[in-house]
Structures
1.
Amino acid sequence: MLTILTPIHITPNIRSYRTHSFKNILKYLSKITEIQIVWLVYKPEKIDGKKYSDENNIVLDIHDFENATDVIKKIQPNIIWAAPTLNLPDFALSIAGKKLGIPVVGELVTELFFNDNNFNILKTYLGSFFESSVPTDISDKDKKFMKRGRFFIYKFLFLVKTQKKIGWTFFKILKYFFILVKAHITVYKDVHNPKFACDIHFVETEKLVEELIKKGYDKKKLIVTGIPMYDEASTQIKELEKKRIINTKKNVLFLTHAMYEHGMWTKEQRNSLIKKIVTELSKKENNYNLTIKIHPSSEQLADYETIVHKIDKSIKIIQQGDILEHITNADVIITYSGASSLVYALMCNKPIIICNFYDLRNDIFIDGKVAVSCKNEKEVKKTIEKVGIESFIKKEDVEKFIAEYFHKLDGKASERIGNEILKIVKKQ
């Protein structure tokens, strides 16, 4: 039995980048060997793991353990999959795994946007610390006083207990405290930090490898694989195209992104942008059928309902479900930052409009000439009509962009990662 232990901020029944990728990796590896994924769920409230477990997926709750070492000793995994980032539960499992001699792997993906305003990021973090909810909350009933801040402290103490358990000195723990504080403030300027490196990294593209080496990563620990999340997309798109809903109105899909939740924007910035776009697109004289798709785990449905339904109650806001279905049915995609889901839009040949109202720099979709920029709400309608008439996106630009930033969309990323995992296990 091949056992992989990985932390996750939601229950694995909810679609996310990691659950989607693991589903495809599990599908490939299960043809070769028996495999089991053990999910260490970290949420503010304790969950019943048995409720979400099955033969191939075991769900544990972080509250049942004092530190990451105790988790590893209980599970005795062959592999630990932990993101090589400042995320505290991932980092705790990573350092504990290394100490116990368990191979630690993780994925490194292309950063899709850039923000070097550290003051604004710090201001957003400090403000969110006192919030009564976290992005994974389902309803207002889940709210508690300073919930987000208290949960951050819980995760930090989990890390500290792990550091103590594996023998870190007080001064090393203190040193990494300041490293983590700095990393949080500068995360969108320097998201890839070798201080959080794993034993082996599955890297999205060759281009990213070059950047990582410059930052101090060991070239021998970087393996280009692509991203498993996209493996089945081509087949799914063909099937969905057959079922596509034809509407007399132009179908506009508004894809949001957790810019506020990730500390990039203030809540006021997010709310203002949403209001402006929705107000503009919901005008009666417009012939649009607007649908809003929010992130399945990092954003709160109630937040968007409060903002959007004050303007137009008929607008559909969707959180769960397959994003590909909504992209396939759309005539045009509107968003406000480059996100990984936009790759699906490129694969479906959909025009993409990025509402860059706050002058975010280095958006690779705009710089790569595969999306059109819109600077304010007055340009939204005009830009939608324009992309519907003219073809701004060249096929060769899309192919070049995908090869440069997303490696091969050949459906074999899971196979490449799976084979590397098997090699690591054989060496044990």
2.
Amino acid sequence: MLNDSSTIIVIIFLGLSAVPLLKYFTRLRFPMDTYVSYLWIYFLVFTIAEVKSFTLAIWILAALCFAALREYFSLVDIRLQDRWSIWGAYLAIPFMIYLIQIDWYGMFIISIPVYAFLVTAFLATIGGDERKGIVFSIGAIYFGLFLFVYCIGHLGYLVRYSTWLASMLVLNVVVCDVSAYMFGIRKKFTWRKTLAATPITVFIGWALSDWAGLPPLHGIILGALIPPLVAASRRTIAFMESDLRIDSEPLHPGKGQIIDNMKSYLYVAPIMFHYVHYFLT
């Protein structure tokens, strides 16, 4: 039987699920159209974790990580002989997700920064004898693996703690992204435009603290931390998108759409997770 907090997560998921039907019957175009689709995936994960199985939910998130990493590799100029290293990066996803599934925090925290890095670096040497460009290849592969697998993996670990912790993160990020969209932050980055969302995120952090299992003060602190983290994440990925020439509209899957819709979570997920882990568990 669902409790009140679980019911609200399900209602949010059903509301997001109704958007495509509303578009179809009304023929209206919605702002941030593709963004809603990826938001739907997050709440699919939360809903399944609440009503069915955390294990199934976490592997859905693994599929999203795989899609993001695959899109990133398709945009980066990597040598043919790096294919073994790329396969190693893909295999790091189930390795990390399994550690989350069995709640092995100590191994999870070093899974990508230590073991996956060492293995993918070694695999880059066995695909051929060409040595020129290997430093770039290792750095590019690890950069994508760290951001789109390891950082997003922390969101999955938050779901293990509490689906409302993860939901609070996502809802606050949505507020920041809507603020960014309204102020046209894609055109020109300024910290002020993203930080304008802080009063709302602080309120959400306080309002949801009880359901998320947080003392109200910590909910407020996390609410205040999220906008600057979103701003830092958006700025970092904006530079990466420019270098990878992800600048055309509309964005399509495989051409930067997944990266663009995940970019606001890459700093928030790990830092919020570690805040909760070190101060509240």
